């Protein structure tokens, strides 16, 4: 299995596959409360069989070119993941997402990992528009969207029911030409394209 270095700190991005269900469940157990504050995945992955089923779902998406999941390893431990929840090369669209357990927070891991996965979607699979859908009260995830050069397209009011509350969701996106311009700017050492709508959110994811 391949591993993609995410920098000089030893962090790596690797595919997550059904045979890693034990490791994935252990990761979810460590981060269950933290991840579950904003993400329903801990309610889905509760035991070894459900862990295997979730990874099998993404194995099927990989096989049909309709999604991807990659884990983030730090110091040899699985601490989070980035996903292409939806991938439609024919339509040129994709939706990305992420999560981290507490041990992975504050290191820029999600930004680095998501940048790698989105770059693959745009440059290899020909995706034109990548979306990032996030609860309006999830400041760390919104900060990641900004660092990825996304712009806020819309606020979907009370569109997401989670744990007894209706939450507003924000739709952020980046288009392939914007992505390439920002990448070229980074390579040249000059400021790149950033998200342009909304207020500044704290870094740390």
Description:
The protein has about 200 residues and is an alpha+beta fold. About 35% of the residues lie in helices and about 30% in strands. A hairpin with a 2-residue loop joins β3 (about 70-75) and β4. The two termini are about 25 Å apart.
Topology:
Layout: E1 4-5, E2 12-15, H1 21-36, H2 41-44, H3 48-63, E3 68-74, E4 77-88, E5 93-100, H4 109-123, E6 129-135, H5 139-147, E7 151-162, E8 165-175, H6 176-188
Parallel strand pairs: 5-6
Antiparallel strand pairs: 1-2, 2-3, 3-4, 4-5, 6-8, 7-8
Helix pairs in contact: 1-3
Keywords:
205 residues; 8 strands; disordered C terminus; 36% helix; 8-stranded mixed sheet; alpha+beta; globular
Provide a brief overview of the structure:
An eight-stranded mixed sheet has the order 1-2-3-4-5-6-8-7, sandwiched between helices.
DSSP helical segment count: 6
- What is the string of SSEs from the N terminus onward? EEHHHEEEHEHEEH
Strand content: 25-35%
Q: How confident overall, as mean pLDDT? A: 91
Order of strands, main sheet, comes to 1-2-3-4-5-6-8-7
Unreliable sequence segments: 192-205
Share in helix: 25-40%
Overall geometric form: globular
What is the number of beta strands? Answer: 8
Secondary-structure-based class equals: alpha+beta
Rg (C-alpha, Å): 16 Å
Quote the distance from N terminus to C terminus.
Answer: 26 Å
Largest sheet: 8 strands, mixed
């Amino acid at each position: 299995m391949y591993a993609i270095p995410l920098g000089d700190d030893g962090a790596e991005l690797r595919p997550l596959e059904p045979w890693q269900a034990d490791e994935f469940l252990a990761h979810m157990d460590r981060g269950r409360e933290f991840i579950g504050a904003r993400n329903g995945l801990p309610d889905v992955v509760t035991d070894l069989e459900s862990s295997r089923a979730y990874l099998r779902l993404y194995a099927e998406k990989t096989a049909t070119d309709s999604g991807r999941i990659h884990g983030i390893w730090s110091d040899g431990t699985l601490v989070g993941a980035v996903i292409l929840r939806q991938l439609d090369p024919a339509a040129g669209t994709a939706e990305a997402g992420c999560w981290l357990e507490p041990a992975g927070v504050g290191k820029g891991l999600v930004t680095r990992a998501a940048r790698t996965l989105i770059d693959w979607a745009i440059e290899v699979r020909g995706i034109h528009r990548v979306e990032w859908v996030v609860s309006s009260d999830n400041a760390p995830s919104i900060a990641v969207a900004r660092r990825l050069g996304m712009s806020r397209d819309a606020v979907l009011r009370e569109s997401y029911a989670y744990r007894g509350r209706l939450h507003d969701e924000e739709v952020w996106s980046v288009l392939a030409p914007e992505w390439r311009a920002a990448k070229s700017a980074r390579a040249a050492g000059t400021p790149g394209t950033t998200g342009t709508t909304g207020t500044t959110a704290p870094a740390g994811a």
